[in-house]
Amino acid sequence: MEIQINFRIAAEQDLDKIVEMLADDVLGSKRERYEQPLPDSYIKAFQTITSDPNNELVVAYQGDEIIGVQQITFTPYITHQGGWRATIEGVRTASSSRSKGIGTELIKWGINRATERGCHIVQLTTDKERPDALRFYEKLGFKATHEGLKLKL
Amino acid sequence: MEIQINFRIAAEQDLDKIVEMLADDVLGSKRERYEQPLPDSYIKAFQTITSDPNNELVVAYQGDEIIGVQQITFTPYITHQGGWRATIEGVRTASSSRSKGIGTELIKWGINRATERGCHIVQLTTDKERPDALRFYEKLGFKATHEGLKLKL
């Protein structure tokens, strides 16, 4: 059976499900706060993202059900002769919908969107504690040419 | 002798020197085009960056001389409870000014700027072909917790 997955820019009523998905994960559960009412910081971030033409919060859905999310940021850089890049972050599929190829479709959609926006690179970082995620992205053509460094403030 | 380094947002007259610095490097020489007149793509990117409140192209200078550059991008994310992050890219010091601690001051300036902007993480990726750069960032407190993946379009 072919699964029909659709994609669209997230609406505010999707935010509860988005945060639920982000928190429903070994690493996500340590850093997200999925509670009712949803912490204000998520609502503010959602509004900032949706009012910024260089940020897109994208959901995958089937019927009425949100089954995946990713955030794509488009950045104009001076490097690479002044090229635009797309950065993908916060990729998650609903736990009830995993291993059905939804993540693959989500990232492929992101790659197409980056092409439409004239980007020359799609980039992302993945936690070294997620070896399966690394293999997943490598299968999609990404190369782990860089170290991803973080400094917490 | 203490070296006094100053920092400011780049102006269009700095762009020639910025591109010269970016191109003057083993990896940069393969992907940049430093020629006169400067390719239009750099000028367009410069104008897009400077008109975007979430992007800052920063130069280090001494007197009239530009001796370093970095681009800082501020991004509102849904993850981490809707936190802002700063991403540093395109860090370079002038070859005549290397090994004088200018890179360190440049990144420290970036970290302070990220703090002022309310970011909770400063992040960057560094090419695995630059082991010295990795050590440089680790000394500044960055942790290489992530793989940095790129997909060329």
From TrEMBL, chains A, B:
GO MF, one example: acyltransferase activity, transferring groups other than amino-acyl groups
PROSITE patterns: GNAT (PS51186)
Limits of the N-acetyltransferase domain: 5-153
Pfam families recorded: Acetyltransf_1
UniProtKB keywords: Acyltransferase, Transferase
Top-level taxonomic group: Bacteria
Protein name: Transcriptional regulator
Species, as recorded: Halalkalibacter akibai (strain ATCC 43226 / DSM 21942 / CIP 109018 / JCM 9157 / 1139) (Bacillus akibai)
